[in-house]
Design goal:
Layout (H helix, E strand, L loop, with lengths): L9 H12 L8 H15 L4 H10 L3 H9 L10 H17 L7 E6 L5 H14 L1 H7 E7 L2 H9 L1 E2 L9 H7 E3 L4 E3 L1 H4 L2 E5 L11 E6 L8 H14 E9 L12 E5 L4 E4 L5 H11 L6 H13 L3 E6 L4 E4 L1 H7 L23 H10 L3 E9 L5 E13 L2 E11 L1 H100 L3 E5 L5 E4 L1 H7 L3 H4 L17 H9 L5 E8 L5 E12 L4 E10 L3
Helix pairs in contact: 2-4, 5-6, 6-7
């Protein structure tokens, strides 16, 4: 029996998307990705990730539909009005006051989707600066990762539903009415520059005064959020302002941004030492010496060394990281000078703090073998880690942490151990199979003898079955003869019933036949015409309980006499009401229905007296 191949994992699907289209979704929240991708897979009718990868390979247009599903483009003009009112009255006027009168104002709107938010920023700035100053000074960089949404934003054309909530004065001041859409004014539109920017992979826009990124960070995991916020910090000018969505707090990033108004999610950049200052300070602490060309040569050699290496100074800050380390651990320029304890590398793949403490206090290094680590690309690795002291003039000034990737060697070693184990298991299974084969051979010999005996028994049973078949055939012929006789009798009975019905109808009076318990057996057509009660309603019901125009209670005694065997004819004249509600005098005759030995019922005949 062939076992079905295992389903492709979500990580493999994300890696395929990254290679095929350059979108890196590994930084998005796992639960959100699984939910959004499952939604799109359900729409195209597939359940497995590998089937969906085939769908993407066969239909490249499906990438656009998938990205539209993952990149939730929910936006609007003046979304959360209280935030925009606060920006217009407090934040933007302050930005204008703290800058020279002719200095440009640079705004970055990240994750703008179809552009409503970028044009809202433009309208706020026009309200503060005036139209002429806005055109002269303002540049708004509006970015998103979704090209289809950016195409809509560049068109600056919106249906009536999108602008329905805008005040009339705003709509008339900033929009022009088209045939079926509202167009943002072209003279103001020129200040808004749209472009694609992936917040996870692409470089940030620099020298920004106001950065608006609302309800975008919440789709990323904590690690990716931290990386994006560092880029925002780098892109903002000193005292630059960051505006986030109502679901984004930044409570754990106080080293980068300080809250201006936490309720409205407005933050200001926290100043930090420049990269040059940090590097120069580290170099001074480590007493680096030599000519500039030699220093550059040493730095280049360190950066291009094949193994990942980082340098931590005595204060526990990240001083240097070569290219391999930056690529392996996702380190950036903003991480230089930060305490190692704030970085993920401080505890993955190994807890560095006790080993660094040993280096700085005892001047002794540490070597760790084949540590398991799962990289950000979801690949399992094994690393040898060496922590060695850096000394200058007899004093420890820092520590070098070197990471050697031994994944391939460890994998080969594991494969060798596995192969040996499998070989031993296969040898034991083969030995067991040989023994089972011998036992099975003996059992088959015995079974063969039993089958021969069974075959003889079956031959005898077959002969008995043939005899029984002949008997059954004879019985079947007898049953067919009996069935024909029953059919003829049934036909005769139907004819008799029809004849009886004809007689009862031909009598021209209402006739009711009762059984010994006074239940109605026959209720002819004239009874239905006289009383308005159908045969279906009367038959099977006790005659004395029927509710129609005749006082049946007065017939109890005559009926009991008929059923008791009297041969006298009982005739009564009673006051009755017809089915049309008219009173009349009714003649009722009760007769016994005599059977072979005793009365088998009674006959009731009812007729209206003629006037």
């Amino acid at each position: 029996m062939t076992t079905a191949p295992p389903d492709t994992s979500l990580d493999e699907l994300l890696e395929f998307i990254k290679i095929a289209r350059g979108f890196d979704f590994t930084g998005y929240k796992r639960s959100t990705l699984q939910r959004r991708i499952a939604k799109r897979m359900g729409e195209v009718g597939v359940e497995r990730y590998d089937d969906y990868i085939q769908q993407l390979e066969l239909n490249p247009d499906e990438f656009a539909q998938l990205f539209n599903t993952i990149l939730i483009n929910v936006t609007g003009f003046y979304r959360d009005p209280a935030t925009w009112e606060y920006l217009e009255k407090e934040i933007v006027p302050e930005l204008v006051r703290t800058r020279p009168p002719d200095a440009p104002l640079r705004v970055w709107c990240a994750g703008v989707a179809s552009g409503e938010e970028a044009y809202t920023v433009a309208m706020v700035l026009v309200g503060v600066l005036g139209e002429q100053a806005f055109r002269d000074r303002v540049k708004i960089y509006a970015t998103d990762a979704d090209e289809e949404a950016l195409d809509q934003a560049r068109a600056a054309a919106y249906p009536p539903k999108a602008v329905a909530d805008l005040p009339r004065n705003i709509l008339e001041s900033y929009f022009e009415r088209g045939d079926q859409r509202y167009l943002f004014r072209k003279d103001l539109r020129r200040a808004v520059i749209f472009g694609r920017n992936d917040l996870v992979q692409d470089a940030p826009i620099s020298r920004i005064d106001l950065l608006v990124c609302r309800n975008t960070l919440m789709y990323f995991n904590a690690e990716t959020q931290q990386r994006i916020l560092r880029r925002f910090h780098f892109g903002l000018d000193p005292n630059g302002v960051l505006v986030l969505g109502k679901s984004e707090m930044l409570l754990s990033h106080t080293d980068l941004f300080a809250p201006v108004d936490l309720t409205r999610r407005v933050f200001r950049k926290v100043g930090r030492p420049s990269l040059r200052d940090r590097v120069q300070g580290m170099a001074h602490d480590m007493h680096e010496s030599g000519k500039p060309s030699e220093i550059a040569l040493r730095n280049g050699a360190f950066d291009l060394s094949p193994g990942a290496q980082i340098v931590v100074n005595r204060e526990g800050e990240l001083a240097l990281a070569n290219e391999s380390a930056r690529r392996l651990f996702g380190l950036g320029a903003n991480d230089l000078g930060r305490p190692v304890s704030e970085l993920e590398i401080s505890y993955r793949p190994v807890e560095l703090e006790p080993h660094l403490e040993r280096v700085f206090t005892q001047q002794r290094g540490t070597e760790l073998r084949a540590l398991h680590w799962r990289s950000p690309t979801a690949r399992d690795r094994h690393l040898d880690v060496r922590v060695v002291p850096l000394a200058s003039n007899g004093a420890v000034t820092g520590a070098v942490v070197a990471y050697t990737d031994v994944s391939e060697a460890r994998e080969l070693e594991d494969q060798l151990v596995t192969s040996r184990r499998e070989l031993d298991d296969a040898h034991e299974e083969l030995q067991s199979a040989v023994e089972e084969l011998e036992t099975t051979n003996e059992e088959l010999q015995s079974t063969n003898e039993e089958l021969e005996t069974t075959n003889e028994e079956l031959q005898s049973t077959n002969e008995e079955l043939e005899t029984m078949n002949e008997e059954l055939q004879s019985t079947n012929e007898e049953l067919e003869t009996m069935n024909e006789e029953l059919r003829l009798r049934s036909t005769e009975l139907n004819d008799v019933n029809a004849f009886l019905e004809t007689i009862l109808t031909s009598m021209g009076i209402a006739v009711v036949v009762l059984d010994p318990s006074m239940h109605v057996q026959i209720w002819n057509a004239h009874s239905r015409e006289l009383w308005g009660v159908t045969a279906e309603e009367a038959e099977g019901v006790n005659f004395l309980r029927l509710d129609f125009g005749l006082p049946v209670k007065e017939l109890k005694a005559p009926l009991e006499a008929c059923l008791a065997g009297t041969t006298e004819r009982e005739e009564l004249v009673l006051d009755a009401v017809s089915r049309r509600g008219k009173p009349f005098r009714c003649t009722v005759v009760c007769l016994p229905l005599n059977g072979p030995d005793a009365p088998s019922g009674a006959i009731v005949m009812m007729e209206a007296q003629k006037k």
